[in-house]
Amino acid sequence: MTPATLSIAQARHLALRAQGLAAGSNSVAAGGTRAQRNRVVRMVAELGAVQLDTISVLARSHELVAYSRLGALERSAIEAGYWSDPPNAFEYWSHAACILPLDSYPWFGFRRREFVARGYRWHDVPRQALKGVLKRLAAEGPLTANELGGAKAGAEWWNWSETKIAVEWLWDIGEVVVTRRAGWRRVYDLAERALPASLLELLPDDRACLTELVRRSGQTLGVGTTTDLADVHRLSSAQVRSVVAESGLVPVTVEGWPNGCYADPAALRSVDRPVTTATALLSPFDSLVWNRARTARLFGLEHRLEAYTPAAKRIHGYFAMPVLHKGELIARVDPGREGSTLVAKHVTFEVANGAVPRSAISGVATALKNASSWIGSTDIRIDRVTPDVARKPLLAALAR
Questions:
Q1: Other Cβ atoms closer than 10 A to 154
Q2: What is the pLDDT of residues 126-154, one digit of tens each?
Q3: What is the pTM of this model?
């Protein structure tokens, strides 16, 4: 029988399964390049969105998302899984700029129409440049902004050229799509050429789009509040409330959470099944920890990205990565790389009753050794540990 009330542990189990993190060890990824690529394709379909970001420490965030779920994949297989030919995914505005499964393209029609109605991004759109961009793409095929004539009008990163503004606007409104990147640059193509006609011909209205995206958000969360559901694709809570009754999600109560929680009915069927997880470093942009309030409710971890915080005010580090171990977030590691050495610049353990659990020590050691092997480093150095009493046990665990 479906429980009307979920404990925090049950909610956590639903979340971990929904996020593809209920698995075994991630130390070895089985299969050749093609098999690994196909696993990434399936992962994107299951997660619904994988956030992209320019910051690269051990690897770029979208690579870390695949690594934490699928193990030590070949980096080329990860990229091939995201940017397939023909495409299985596309890039668009979701939680942020995200890789999204191709079949979700029609359901972002409401957002494309919002851009059209608004008439601008944060820049004024140079209307005279739009026809030229479309003409070039039609004649020459997929192109980057640089190939179209240059992305910047000046030295500042934000000082975009008219061509860059024009092609990004065409991407916003759906006349242009991005189904791959080259050298971290978006490759723009005409929607009519890059996407199957069956997707372009499917034109759900705004209400249908919102209903489907809320349903998919429930699947990717397992269980969440109205605000949680809204956060997945940056909807408003009012939009979620307007369609959630039609989404197929089931109203539930989660102990200690605010009213207005909903769960994926398929996920609820396995709510009492034990969960095991990989031991891995998670990207700060991982969808498990996108929502700071939700992360605190689920795991008791106050997680935030400090990359844009002045160095003197950082607590956990520039790119502090939560460590997942046995279904819990047990610590944070701020990593770096110096030559062939993986550097843990700051390891911060979550302290329980004034002590660091032995399992947390071994979990962090395993996560560091696995990550070191994946990126090809030959040594691990620990710079700082909080609390300091955990330093010697951690070094001992790394030496084993």
A1: 9
A2: 888 999 999 999 999 999 999 998 766 55
A3: 0.93
pLDDT of 141:
96
Integer angstrom CA distances of residue 72 from 16, 25, 33, 303: 19, 10, 12, 25
Please check the confidence at residue 157 and state whether its pLDDT lies above 50: no
Between strands 328-338 and 341-349, the pairing is antiparallel
What pLDDT does residue 1 have? 42
Q: In whole angstroms, give the CA distance from residue 369 to residue 399.
A: 10
Residue written as token pair 């916003």: 172
Backbone angles phi, psi at 341, to 5 degrees: -110, 125
Q: Give me the pLDDT at residue 29, please.
A: 59
Give the end-to-end CA distance of the chain in Å, rounded to a whole number: 46
Q: Count other Cβ atoms within 10 Å, centred on residue 168.
A: 20
- Residues sharing a CB contact under 8 Å with residue 102, sequence separation 6 or more, in sequence order: 87, 88, 89, 90, 179, 195, 199
The phi, psi pair for 323, rounded to 5°, reads: -105, 120
Q: CA separation (Å) from 185 to 147, 178, 238, 329, 332?
A: 10, 10, 35, 33, 30
Alpha helices in 255-302 (DSSP H): 265-268, 292-299
Strand partners, 261: 225, 252
pLDDT above 50 for 26:
no
Per-residue model confidence as pLDDT tens digits over 336-346: 999 999 999 99
For residue 228, what are the contacts with CB-CB under 8 A and spacing of at least 6? Answer: 217, 221, 291, 294
Higher pLDDT, 115 or 125: 115
CB 132 within 8 A of CB 165: no
Cα 233 from Cα 221, distance rounded (Å):
12
Residue with tokens 């307007």: 242
